[in-house]
Automatic annotation (TrEMBL):
Its main location: mitochondrion. It is found in: Mitochondrion. The keyword Membrane does not apply. GO terms for molecular function: identical protein binding; pyridoxal phosphate binding; transaminase activity. SUPFAM superfamilies: PLP-dependent transferases. It comes from marine metagenome. Pathway: Amino-acid biosynthesis. Signal peptide: none annotated. Keywords: Amino-acid biosynthesis, Aminotransferase, Pyridoxal phosphate, Transferase. This is Acetylornithine transaminase. Its cofactor is pyridoxal 5'-phosphate. The keyword Amino-acid biosynthesis applies. InterPro entries: AcOrn/SuccOrn_fam, Aminotrans_3, Aminotrans_3_PPA_site, Class-III_PLP-dep_AT, PyrdxlP-dep_Trfase, PyrdxlP-dep_Trfase_major, PyrdxlP-dep_Trfase_small. One of its GO terms (cellular component) is mitochondrion.
Length: 398
């Protein structure tokens, strides 16, 4: 380890809350799909900051737009108008078919807002409903409301009690969903593709059961598209693919291409129940984050979705080919540029480590799934390079 690396690690060890088990590499800069560490070593980045660096790293258009915005104006708070929130709101509502947008700073805040607005909706019907139905294997974030609808018990236990009115059902059990969704349920919350839980797309049958349960009980539907949304699967939203009609949608990650921004999209019926002062944020939707979102949305509309479809199909085909050759891979799941390879936890740990040594970044979801969330701008050659590295890694495991 170089002295520079050592200094970074010592400073963190001495001064930071020790809440992350960091992988021992210090990144200093990036270029497209590649990251460079403090020693100048290059890595192909198929993690993209957990699905955030949607335009890759050091994107020239984004860098120029952000520098220009920084010279003009970064932040004014939500006390005043600025020209960009309405523009991003228009683009997102057009893309989703939902009526209105609220901006925040992260995925968990977007989920938190969705939960609040769902309760707000029922409160104004004069029939307060407080219960939520969530899914086993879900991950919705770390703030208390989002955490309460997150399945992994070890995430919730140290912060108990969570919101008491959450019922978890299996995402493969439509009958349990039906049973849990009574007329006291404010909303069903789900990820159309469960990301942190191990890259599990919901089945069309389960999605159909969600629609039936919502229409029978009146419960609202919250789609958490923080990880799978905004083009990552080759469609603007995976809810569309499943024919789901959410009343509320949580967005984050890819939207700011690296600048923190989250968004809540909602139907007019929900929006009509929210009054000025009900919710708010200091930073949410400031000029910097909205500028980033506009650059991202432009890129998505100008060839971005097509690139995800092409690169995603190439990646999936290559991964399936690897699964045919290496029995340690027990399943390949995902769509577009959200892909997972299921294996045992021990093997998955070895693969992440060996891939890193081979210059490829992938990470583990749910311990036993190698997850890939490359930038939307990834090239065919880069996809092939990742597949080749994985091939080498897997061949040495045998
Ligand atoms: C589906 C989903 N929802 C919510 C979140 C929380 O987002 P954030 O970490 O930006 O708060 C995540 C983060 O991984 C996520 O995958």
């Amino acid at each position: 380890m170089t002295t520079e690396e050592q200094n970074v690690r010592v400073a963190e060890a001495e001064h930071l809350l020790q809440v992350y088990n960091r992988i021992p590499v210090v990144f200093t800069h990036g270029d497209g799909s590649y990251l460079y560490d403090i020693n100048g070593r290059r890595y192909l980045d198929f993690v993209s900051g957990l699905g955030v660096a949607s335009l890759g790293h050091a994107h020239p258009g984004l860098a120029a737009a952000l520098a220009g915005q920084a010279r003009a104006l970064l932040h004014t708070s939500n006390l005043y108008f600025h020209p960009l929130q309405g523009q991003v709101g228009r683009r997102l509502t057009e893309l989703s078919g939902l009526a209105r947008a609220f901006f925040c700073n992260s995925g968990t805040e977007a989920v938190e807002g969705c939960l609040k607005f769902a309760r707000r909706y029922w409160y104004s019907q004069g029939n307060p409903r407080t219960r939520f139905v969530a899914l086993e294997r879900s991950f919705h974030g770390r703030t208390l409301g989002a955490l309460s609808t997150t399945w992994e018990p070890s995430y919730r236990a140290p912060f108990a009690p969570p919101l008491p009115e959450v019922t978890f059902v299996s995402p493969t059990d439509p009958e349990a969903l039906d049973e849990a969704t009574g007329t006291d349920v404010a909303a069903i919350i789900l990820e159309p593709i469960q990301g942190e839980g191990g890259v599990w797309p919901l089945s069309p049958e389960f999605a159909a059961a969600v629609t039936v349960a919502c229409s029978r009980s009146g419960a609202l539907l919250i789609a958490d598209e923080v990880q799978c949304g905004l083009g990552r699967t080759g469609t603007p939203f995976y809810s569309d693919h499943l024919d789901l009609k959410p009343d509320l949608m949580a967005l984050g990650k890819a939207l700011g291409a690296g600048v923190p921004i989250g968004a809540i999209l909602m139907s007019q019926a929900v929006a009509d129940t929210v009054a000025p002062g009900d919710h708010g944020t200091t930073y949410g939707g400031n000029l910097l984050s909205c500028r980033a979102a506009l650059v991202f949305l432009d890129a998505l509309e100008h060839g971005g979705l097509e690139r995800v479809q092409e690169a995603g199909a190439r990646l999936e085909k290559g991964l399936r080919h690897l699964a045919d050759r290496y029995p340690v891979i027990t399943d390949v799941r995902g769509t577009g540029l959200m892909q997972g390879l299921d294996m045992t936890e021990t093997v998955a740990g070895q693969v992440v480590e060996a891939a890193l040594a081979g210059g490829l970044l992938v990470n583990r979801a749910a311990g036993h799934v190698i997850r890939m969330l490359p930038p939307f701008t990834v090239s065919d050659t880069e996809v092939d390079e990742a597949l080749q590295t994985l091939d080498q890694v897997l061949s040495k495991l045998r």
